[in-house]
Design goal:
With about 750 residues, the chain is an alpha+beta fold. Helix content is about 40%, strand content about 15%. The protein has 6 domains: about 25-150, Arc Repressor Mutant, subunit A, CATH 1.10.10; about 165-345 and about 355-420, no CATH class; about 435-525, no CATH class; about 530-580; about 595-670, no CATH class; about 685-745, no CATH class. The termini are far apart.
Length: about 750
């Protein structure tokens, strides 16, 4: 028997080329317009609506409009056999109106069907129209939007293997992990929008920011199979569900408005699952496909076929992955291939067609080896388990267990899995408990997963920051997160009420006060949609500029937002003829080298002509500015790195790697030895230099001794260097050296 349940209206394709894709209807009409008149006439005759008086220029509209009539398309699909109806169901399940021809063939073959006659029948009615992705892209089939909307899920026919059982150790995820990771990604993009290149990919800095985020890329506590290239997976899913969007007419990718959570929070689990079914550039074993790939991945087109075979079994029946692999082998010997070839093209070496994360695939394959795995289908079983026990399990589509006593892996669809395939009713709501939050006085919030659902995750994400994902989740209240909540329409009272409602104990008084204080500060903020910032070398220079600045009374006046920076709303009021401009800065470019290190290794000289507004904060984080009389003859601003200033930076999170990156970007050199000396001294348990007689100082490293010989506080107390890490200390200067090192927090070991 066939199961038929209506599916929802499809959305645009998940992986469009750079720039906004054309609507599904326009793309269909454009592809249909490339047909010959005789072909369009044949379609209209097959639809029973050909009129000889129809003009050739109107044939495309006639075909489109005829199929757009609900009565016509429903009757047409009702007359079709199981094969064409099942093919249309694939378009609807994945919410993708465009399928590569080779991908549809791969999926239908895994369902035991030959694609040629099916595609010919659907094309004859105009339900599917052949086209191409770009000039040299793969051949595709574009479905009429009304046909996809009217499609129903058809389960595959034919004999299947017996169900497995009995089972033990049944496991089912809560399905919250993808939603939590997408919520964290939404927050990161809301904090700082990401930029795209002309090819549509993210700039390296933005990509690294996502890849290195501990919440997005951190391990999953309840994982049966690893998810390679997780950050890329969350990024693509967030794009697919509209949680992050490309800003029109710019190169920026921004976060969706906060109202998104109220409108879509409840339905987000099935939305994410359907986007995974249609995600075509991510491989379950190898991760995200590289940008230079020239072949399509095969597993994305296998996903719906595998889930449809699982749907053939009852809600309480289990399926062994090894049995399913054998069944697919009988239907389609190449079902477990990693890459697809176009019609008529020979299969090429996967390495030549574009990498899919070969190293990650090898690592995951090695972790997936089991001593009891069936030897006759190791590759196919590994792919099925990576697919079903990896993303499908995390999305809440699959329950997993072990067959007793064989120990084989067995799976079955959950209620959500059947609902996503449109072969079952909506899943019942998860049982939760009301008080699952622990709000601490330091503004950290611990949340237990048992109390969460997708709607609550969205509510909390609007005014708190996710800082850790695991068995227990960690969030944090900050001024910035409260500002986000206020901008999204939440009041301080609503935020506090939501925390109090779900907290297991009364909120700490400091939390009430902080939220109220942060909210009142935001109320005093003035917003400028656009402005120009002018930076002056000194406060006196800014004062002199204001003295000669004389805009008309009805024009905006300049505003001093610091002792050296003016904000100007109207560029036309700037008296450029009275100023000597040292330079301008485009903040879309990478940071520019604008700092030099003086001979002592701890004094930094700032080139005002090449500096920007960020450099003050960057330098002030780890160094103290010298007074005006300490400037050198070139008029540059100078800073001095001291033990106290560096300790301040270390407490603020400065690391050796971040300091090295800053010097590379801003100085263009490596970190000087004298500064590495101070950094070494500020570490919690620094390795100490050793002193022996005759008084010879032995340093733990060459860099540390270089720093002692360079730094002005220690270099005058050292004698001749006698080796890479050793130097003579004159007797008379020993106590002076000891005092100088004490100022750094170091002492001489062995003296």
């Amino acid at each position: 028997m066939s199961t038929e349940i209506d599916v929802s209206q499809p959305d645009p394709d998940l992986a469009p080329p750079p720039g906004p894709p054309p609507p599904a209807a326009e793309r269909y009409r454009a592809a249909l317009g490339k047909h010959h008149g005789a072909q369009l006439v044949a379609m209209l005759q097959a639809l029973g609506s050909y009129d000889r008086a129809t003009k050739p220029s109107e044939l495309v509209s006639e075909v489109y409009d005829r199929l757009n009539e609900p009565r016509v398309i429903e009757a047409l699909i009702g007359r079709m056999g199981p094969g064409p109806r099942l093919a249309l169901g694939l378009f609807a399940i994945t919410e993708s109106p465009v399928w590569p021809t080779a991908g549809l063939s791969h999926s239908l073959a895994a369902l035991g069907l030959e694609s040629g006659p099916i595609v010919a029948e659907l094309s004859g009615f105009g339900v599917l129209v052949p086209g191409r992705e770009g000039d040299n892209g793969p051949h595709v089939l574009i479905a009429h939007p009304a046909a996809v909307a009217a499609a129903r899920t058809i389960l595959p026919e034919g004999d299947v293997f017996p169900a497995a059982g009995p089972v033990r150790q049944v496991r089912e995820s809560d399905g919250l992990e993808p939603i939590l990771r997408l919520a964290a990604l939404w927050q990161r993009v809301d904090e700082a929008a990401m930029r795209r290149t002309q090819q549509g990919t993210l700039y390296k800095r933005d990509r690294e920011r996502i890849d290195d985020d501990p919440v997005l890329a951190g391990p999953i506590a309840d994982a049966l199979e690893p998810l390679p290239d997780m950050a890329s997976l969350w990024l693509m899913l967030a794009r697919g569900v509209g949680l992050i969007v490309d800003e029109p007419n710019t190169d920026r990718t921004v976060a969706a408005p906060a109202e998104y959570w109220a409108e879509n929070g409840v339905h987000l689990p099935q939305m994410i699952a359907q986007r995974w079914l249609g995600l075509r550039t991510w491989h379950e074993q190898g991760g995200m496909q590289t940008d230079d790939a020239t072949a399509m991945l095969a597993p994305p087109f296998l996903r719906p076929a595998v889930l449809l075979w699982l749907a053939r079994f009852g809600p309480d029946e289990w399926v062994a992955t090894a049995d399913l692999a054998e069944h697919l082998d009988r239907l389609h010997p190449d079902w477990s291939a990693s890459l697809l070839a176009e019609w008529g093209d020979p299969r090429t070496d996967p390495a030549a067609k574009g990498r899919i994360g070969a190293e990650a695939r090898e690592r995951s394959a090695s972790r997936r080896k089991k001593p009891d795995a069936p030897p006759e289908h190791p590759g196919g079983v590994a792919l099925l388990e990576a697919m079903l026990l990896g993303p499908a399990y995390q999305l809440g589509l699959i329950r997993a267990a072990e067959e007793d006593p064989s120990g084989r892996r067995v799976v079955r669809l959950t209620e959500l899995g059947r609902y996503v395939l449109a072969v079952g009713p909506p899943p019942s709501a998860r049982a939760t408990f009301e008080h699952f939050l622990f709000v601490q006085p330091n503004f950290e919030v611990i949340a237990y997963r048992q109390g969460l659902n997708s709607a609550l995750i969205g509510q909390l994400s609007r005014f708190m920051i996710w800082t850790q994902s695991g068995a227990a989740l960690e969030m944090r209240l900050t001024a910035e997160s409260v500002y986000r909540g206020l901008e999204g329409g939440l009041s301080p009272e609503k935020m506090l009420e939501r925390l109090a409602r779900h907290s297991s104990r009364p909120l700490p008084p400091g939390v009430y006060e902080a939220v109220k204080t942060w909210s009142s500060r935001r109320d005093r903020v003035t917003y400028f949609s656009s402005a120009i910032l002018i930076e002056f070398a000194t406060a006196e220079a800014l004062g002199d500029a204001l003295a000669i600045w004389s805009p008309e009374p009805d024009r905006p006046q300049p505003i001093a937002i610091s002792d050296r920076i003016l904000l100007v709303e109207d560029e036309s009021t700037i008296p450029f003829g009275k100023f000597k401009l040292a330079g301008s800065r485009d903040y879309r470019r990478a940071p520019e080298v604008c700092v030099e290190v003086e001979r002592d290794g701890v004094t930094l000289s700032l080139d005002l002509g090449r500096s920007d507004l960020f450099i003050d904060t960057e330098l002030g984080r780890m160094a103290d500015e010298l007074p005006d009389e300490g400037r050198n003859t070139s008029g540059r601003r100078r800073y001095r790195v001291t033990p106290s200033s560096l300790s301040r930076a270390v407490e603020d999170g400065l690391s050796v790697s971040s300091l090295a990156k800053w010097f590379s970007q801003r100085v263009g050199t490596e970190v000087p030895p004298a500064l590495r000396l101070l950094l070494h001294a500020s570490s919690p348990k620094p390795e100490l230099p050793r002193l022996s007689r005759p008084i010879i100082l032995t340093s733990p490293t060459t860099d540390l001794l270089d720093g002692l010989l360079q730094h002005p506080a220690t270099r005058d107390f050292l004698g001749m260097r006698i080796g890479p890490t050793t130097v003579v200390v004159p007797d008379a200067l020993l106590e002076s050296l000891r005092k100088a090192l004490a100022d750094f927090g170091l002492h001489l070991d062995g003296a």
